[in-house]
Amino acid sequence: MRPIKILKKIINIYFYLLGIGVFVDLFQWGIALFNRKQIKLPFIEENILYTSTNIEAIIPKLLGFLLALIFLYSIALLKRSANDLSEGNHFTNQVIIDFKMIGVLFIILAFGELLCKIIFRTLFDNELGLILDSSILILPVIGLFFIYLSQVFSKAREIQFENELTI
Q1: Distance, CA of 87 to chain centre
Q2: What's the short name of a Pfam family annotated to this entry (predicted)?
Q3: Per-residue b or e along 130-146, where b marks 16 or more CB atoms closer than 10 Å to that residue's CB
Q4: To which H or E segment does residue 56 belong?
Q5: Cβ contact 103:140 at 8 Å
Q6: What gap in Å lies between CA 33 and CA 52, rounded to an integer?
């Protein structure tokens, strides 16, 4: 089996498991809000105690879900690109746009997570501090890699077009 087909299958499985996880987490949040329990936010890893339905309790969870949905969308774009690449459509405009968008979304995720961690730590723990974990450090690197990959594919598309004209 070709590596791109294996990658395509892994991305498909990851996408569907991630989607199920986001919606299960949404369901658990509803139950925790109803039972007034303490839960963790996706991507942010901060514990929040839901003792009321005030805005301070709801906004952090919604921001966590927004980050999770952005990540899910970036994986959906990666899934679409893997499908195009497995079909032999290597240098299409759609693949180039998807790679660039994935890169931008990963950078947005990193800054969103960093901002949320600073804000939530300040609001809920009354501490001004920063936790640098692997996701905050690796997401921008992956994002920049995908942006660079889109530029490489764009250049390869131009070269392919020039080669077709000379033949």
Answers
A1: 24
A2: DUF2975
A3: eeeeeebeebbebbeeb
A4: helix 55-86
A5: no
A6: 8
In angstroms, the Cα distances linking 9 to 13, 15, 56, 82 are 6, 10, 40, 9
- Which residue spans within 36-116 are E strands per DSSP? 38-40, 47-49
Structure tokens at 126: 């009354």
- Any idea where the domains of the chain sit in the sequence? 3-155
Q: What is the pLDDT of residues 5-28, one digit of tens each?
A: 899 999 999 999 999 988 888 887
DSSP per-residue codes, 7-24: HHHHHHHHHHHHHHHHHH
Helix (H) or strand (E) holding 165: helix 134-166
The tokens for 14 are 């990851």
CA dist., res. 86 & res. 93, Å (int) = 15
User: Which of 70, 64, 86 is CA-nearest to residue 9?
Assistant: 86
